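Cross-check.
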Amino acid sequence: MGGANLKLVGGSGATVHYCPLWEGDSLGDLLRGYRKQHNDTAAAIVMSGELADCFPSRMDGIRWIVETVRGVYPDARFYGTDGKFHDGAVPQLAAANWLAAADWLREEYPHAVWVDMGSTTTDVVPLGNFEGLRGLTDLLRLQRGYLVYTGLLRTPVAMQLSTVTLQGRPTPVAAEHFAIAADAHLVLGNITSEGYTCDAPDRGEKTVEGALRRLSRVVCADLDEIRAAGAHEVARQFRDAQLHAIRRAVAAAKKTGGIREVIASGIGSGLLAQELPAADLREPLGPVADALPAHAVREVALRTGGSWPR
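Predicted model, tokenized:
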């Protein structure tokens, strides 16, 4: 349960819903709709949505998510950054989604750096020392380079770039929420309009034409001023800046020792597989690779035993 997306994995496969927690309580409605298709009262849960700024603190977010989930799944249990399942709201539940995935992947890929690119962030995690990963908060992961705050859809272009080069001239970008990663990746062909699942900054059309217009605003221009070629340059340079940040984090993670491969998951796995390069986990896992923390927490729960949905 992220701040922007709800990911569900069960016997019917994987489902991802855009669910911005800061805009109101749609989480309970989505869960109730999902449960109507299944009779389970138990669920294995992992979260990162407690960081959404609609909550005064992370513990407030944890409590709200736990209470909302328990209203639909009374026997739910929650995976924490200590690598254990909990019955109620405890601080260890904050941002444990990445650890659940690492917990499951480490047996199959003990010598890998796992890179998961979602809509908002990219996790870069060496899997060889799971005990050394327990207890890491997002603050500590940011400091170690295990969390790179850039994603395939929601990252503001002005957050990733301070200048772009247009017609050979360095050009500062506007510090405004004019365009996002989804605009860049849509015009570059890395996603489709259907894959543009978050809100556009102007709430406008999620088309190539709409994305080009938004990208032109990044340099305070209209599309007829810089043309499509100029807007494409903004997109390309944004993508390159994203990949540079991720490659740098991967290189640092490899220094932990014993790394033999890089594996990729999340909605950005295709881009990562091509550009890092990396092995795309969608090949062995199928669609659940786009919702890997949800799939992983289910598998870890089943591995630990107990009464869990199968």
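The CA atoms of residues 8 and 15 lie 5 Å apart. The chain has eleven helices and twelve strands. Passed to J.P. for a second look.
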